[in-house]
Amino acid sequence: MARKLLNTVFFVLLIVFAAAFVFPVAVVLINSFKAKFSISESPFTLPFGDDFVGLSNYVEGIKNTGFISAFGWSLFITVFSIAAILIFTSMCAWFIVRVKNKFTSILYYALVFSMIVPFQMVMFTMSKVANVLHLDNPLGIILIYLGFGAGLSVFMFTGFIKTVPLGIEEAATIDGCNPFQTYWQVVFPILKPTAITVAILNTMWIWNDYLLPYLVIGSDYKTIPIAVQYLKGGYGSVDMGAMMAMLVLSIIPVVVFYLFGQKYIIKGVAAGAVKG
User: Do the Cβ atoms of 215 and 144 come closer than 8 Å?
Assistant: First the structure.
């Protein structure tokens, strides 16, 4: 009886926490269909009557921000950054686990240490180096994201690979596979849960990142977070209706991707936290 009561309390608490997280998103969605003056006067009411403006906020926001172009650049940078992170960090983690020497130990701890270094400590130096090395473009920023995303990704992949029996790889070698074939045909498919977890975590970061693209590529190749800022006018005026509409459009791809891979998140995080 006590256990049943405890489970009920936990369930109610989880419902409350879920509502607390969903509520801001619901407010943004509701206000994206309201006139901008109604948003400031009654932000929590449903859009009825004169408050309801239909899709005009979406049309105005897309026109004023160049949203289509920004969406394309955000998609390009995010997709290729995630691909680079998954490929190179998983291979690095496999090398660290299977080749045990001082170099791999130093490499592993250096990558783990990079996780605790705040971005604000290195952002000005990084932007200068990116400019000198001509990385201040959509291709160059992919390498920068790879560098910043390597620490957590290698840590998670390393933990998972430690749980993969070495005998599987030895059997592949006996069957005639070289290291490249062993990795892509045997190891990488096993890493699917952690790979999807790493992809989701990094997608949410890269897609919504404002500071790094602003510092590195500026307004030449506007991503969505940068484009949304163009809805701010002079003297602090903001077209709140259009901004809410653009925020809704910007979160849809991430939400869809998250819903697609959510079942792998807990499994991947738990596997990536293995000590060994």
Answer: no
In a domain, 56, yes or no: no
Closest CA to 262 of 191, 192, 189, 196: 196
Q: What pTM did the predictor assign?
A: 0.84
pLDDT for the residue numbered 116? 85
Name residue 52's beta-bridge partners.
Answer: 34
Residues 6+ apart with CB under 8 A from 92: 107, 111, 150, 154, 157
Structural domains counted in the chain:
1
Q: What is the mean pLDDT of residues 177-184?
A: 87
CATH of residue 245:
1.10.3720.10
Q: Is 221 left (phi over 0), alpha (psi -120 to 50) or beta?
A: beta
AA letter at 174: I
Q: Is residue 23 part of a domain?
A: no
**At 165, is the pLDDT very low, low, confident or very high (cuts 50, 70, 90)?**
confident
- Per-residue pLDDT at 276 exceeds 60: no
